[in-house]
TrEMBL record:
Residues 41-291 form the Sulfotransferase domain. This is Sulfotransferase. PANTHER family: SULFOTRANSFERASE SULT. GO terms for biological process: 3'-phosphoadenosine 5'-phosphosulfate metabolic process; lipid metabolic process; xenobiotic metabolic process. Homodimer. Its EC number is 2.8.2.-. The lineage of its organism: Eukaryota, Metazoa, Chordata, Craniata, Vertebrata. Belongs to the sulfotransferase 1 family. It holds the Pfam family Sulfotransfer_1. It is found in: Cytoplasm. It is an enzyme of class 2 (transferase). The keyword Ribosomal protein does not apply. One of its GO terms (cellular component) is cytoplasm.
Amino acid sequence: MSLENMEGKCLRPETKDVNGVLMTKFISDNWDTIWSFQARPDDLLIATYAKAGTTWMQEIVDMIQNGGDLLQCQRANTYDRHPFIEWMLPPPLKSGLDLANTMPSPRTLKTHLPAQMLPPSFWKENCKIIYVARNAKDCLVSYFHFSRMNKMVPDPGTWEEYIEAFKAGQVLWGSWYDHVQGWWDRKNRHRILYVFYEDLKEDPKREIQKILQFLEKDITEEVLNKIVYHTSFDVMKHNPMANYTTLPASIMDHSISPFMRKGMPGDWKNHFTVAQSEAFDKDYQRKMAGSTLTFRTEI
């Protein structure tokens, strides 16, 4: 049974901590299976905090791997092309692990796990990992709207409540601050390409060239331009294989908020009041003190 065939009302999931990080109960109940997942040496992992440009990077990578062949990149939904390794669903639905384990190599996989919770086989096999990081305020706004429309994650509550939950790390996959710093701290010890959402938005061509170099791929200028165009927000927004519109409204209700909403750095200014922004900044400075990691909140 696939997600597209789910009928009726989709209930919001229960949550349960795993090692102090909030997860759905399905993930938590199956944690041992996830932790023992067997990576393969030629796996490529796309890792992000939720709503940091995951689908965007998946499309870029898929187009690179398929030499810009559009038809090939539309062979299936994004979540079927790149298994979401920790995503567990109630039977008879297929989980990300089921999909990954039956997929031939080389696989491109996806995760939102913080670095310390990544199944150890990924480090052991020295897999290549692309990590995408997005500034906290825009991430928060995007995650809030996503949580409103996606019934497979907990209800976000009010905007005011959500800001506090996000700051406290009481959202699925835990603290944004721990997540971006945890992956940043490992980037020089492992094969990790750390990409910033804002850089990708500002100059997609330059950033895609970095990805090509990391993946040891060569493409023509013509194919590069094609990838830049077809992975732009405005084009992807209308691609049913990337925009999650094939899912029933009982799971993702795009009338509440589209999955691909704005994709523009600085949108947080349309949501935060001056007081909320100042309080957020103060908390941010405290949590990011001592980190060499810096973000741009607009471009």
